[in-house]
Each structure stands twice: as C-alpha cells, then as structure tokens.
C-alpha cells in the first residue's frame, strides 16, 4: 500500500505534505504537533471541514472505515460507552463476538460487565476485538499503549503482532514512542512539522539515524533500554 501524496491544507497552507509505503507494519513517529494525528484523521476521513485534503493512493483496496480499515484509539477508557455492557458494544452476532474475544485472549465472562469494571488492558483488548470485527485490511493504531502500564503495554504489543500474523492485515502505528514502535513495526517513517525527516527499515533507522530529530526521539525513548528488548 503506497501513499504517493497526502497533503492536508488550511487556508492554502500545507500542514502535512508526506508520502510513505505500508508494506507490512509501519510506524509513523513524531513529537506532538508533527502532523501524525492529521495524517491519521485524513486517512480515516475525519478531518475538520475547513481543511483540504489531497490524497494519491495506490492499493488493492479502497479506504472504507469499518470495512477495509479499522481504528484503535489512544485511550481505551474513553473509547467505549461506560453505561453499556461490553457484549452490547459489538455489532456482530454472538458467535462472531465470542470468536473475536477469544482471538484477543479476553475472558468471555467479561462480556457481561461494564467498561468501568475492566482494567486498561482488558478494555484495550475489547477495543481491538471490535476494530477487527470488520476483518480490515489495514489496522490503524493511535498510541494504543500510552494509557497502559509498562507490563500491559508489552502484552498488548505482543497480542497485536500475533493477530497481524494470523489475520494478515497491515498496520499503521502512530506514536511518539520509538521503543513501542520498534517492538511492533518493521519499518518507520519519521515526521516533523508535516514533513518526512527519514524513513526505512526500523532496525536500520534506530541503529543509524540520519536526522538529528530522529536521534532525539530515539534517545528519549531508549534511555536505559535496548532495541527490541
């Protein structure tokens, strides 16, 4: 899947002007304000009405949210209705719901509970299961581990890797955390102020960054940690 041009503008000023390719799993990395969220919203068709979008895409599927593409938001605690049982937040039949929950290692007994009764890790499993209910070709992740503790973060990353291997969808992982990005993705695209700073194979970029900006992100994320620890 190749994004030949993704351009987001406001009053004729380009806020984002990038291109990238998602072969298997790509991390789109940058600090706050780099254009990550705008890129994600553009691909999801969620840009504010006052912004203009130009998108040139080469893929074997159209971008249809809820069908070919699915989205996992940053905070699982706010992604679900707190007053609705987990089982009633799925829009599939009971058999498929159970299958989805089993695929994310979620105890089926939790289906009878309400979101506030679940832990962050359990809620994120629910959100991932719901996202996968449409059997997407591309799973888009917006900082999906930020609200989780370090131990649960590792578990969720490993779960996502297992699901991608078994279901074959592509991954676009939007994050500021190079450590989490390297744990999940094979390739990386680093952006700053809406422009690509560098891109390539994850291990190569992490071990030998060409951009000072990338080096700063790496140093912040890998302090006292190793690549794919």
Following the backbone from N to C, one meets helices and strands in this order, namely EEEHEEHHHEHEHEEHH
Through-space gap between termini = 29 Å
The unreliable regions are: none
Helix content: 25-40%
Looking at CATH, the homologous superfamily is P-loop containing nucleotide triphosphate hydrolases
The largest β sheet comes out as:
6 strands, mixed
CATH architecture, by name, is 3-Layer(aba) Sandwich
Strand order of the largest sheet: 5-6-7-3-8-9
Q: What integer is the average pLDDT?
A: 91
Q: Over all CA atoms, what is the radius of gyration?
A: 18 Å
What structural category do the secondary elements indicate?
alpha/beta
Proportion of strand residues: 25-35%
Q: How many DSSP H or I helices?
A: 8
| CATH class term | Alpha Beta
Overall geometry: globular
Please report the total strand number as a whole number: 9
Give the domain tally: 1
The CATH topology, please? Rossmann fold
Report on the structure:
- The protein is α/β, with parallel strands linked by helices and 229 residues long.
- The chain has a single domain (2-221), classed as P-loop containing nucleotide triphosphate hydrolases (Rossmann fold, 3-Layer(aba) Sandwich), CATH 3.40.50.
- It has 8 helices and 9 strands.
- The strands form 2 sheets. Strands 5-6-7-3-8-9 form a 6-stranded mixed sheet, with helices on both faces. Strands 2-1-4 form a 3-stranded antiparallel sheet, with helices on one face.
- Helix 3 (94-103) packs across helix 4 (120-131) and helix 4 (120-131) runs parallel beside helix 5.
- It is globular, with a radius of gyration of 18 Å.
- The chain starts with a strand and ends in an 8-residue tail after the last helix.
- The model has no long low-confidence stretch (mean pLDDT 91).
């Amino acid at each position: 899947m190749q994004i030949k041009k993704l351009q987001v503008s406001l009053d004729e000023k380009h806020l984002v002007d990038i291109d990238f390719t998602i072969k298997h799993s790509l991390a789109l990395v940058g600090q706050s304000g780099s254009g990550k969220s705008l890129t994600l919203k553009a691909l999801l068709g969620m840009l504010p009405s006052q912004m203009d979008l130009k998108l040139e895409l080469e893929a074997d599927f159209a971008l249809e949210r809820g069908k070919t593409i699915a989205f996992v938001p940053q905070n699982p605690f706010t992604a679900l209705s707190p007053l609705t049982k987990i089982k009633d937040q799925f829009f599939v039949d009971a058999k498929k719901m159970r299958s989805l929950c089993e695929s994310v290692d979620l105890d089926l007994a939790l289906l009878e509970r309400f979101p506030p009764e679940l832990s962050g890790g359990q809620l994120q499993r629910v959100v991932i299961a719901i996202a996968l209910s449409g059997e997407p070709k591309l799973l888009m992740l917006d900082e999906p581990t930020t609200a989780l503790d370090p131990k649960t973060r590792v578990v969720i990353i490993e779960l996502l890797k297992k699901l991608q291997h078994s279901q074959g969808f592509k991954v676009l992982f939007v994050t500021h955390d190079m450590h989490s990005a390297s744990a999940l993705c094979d390739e990386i695209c680093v952006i700053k102020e809406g422009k690509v700073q560098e891109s390539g194979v994850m291990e190569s970029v992490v071990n030998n960054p060409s951009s000072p900006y990338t080096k700063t992100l790496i140093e912040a994320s890998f302090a006292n940690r190793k690549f794919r620890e």
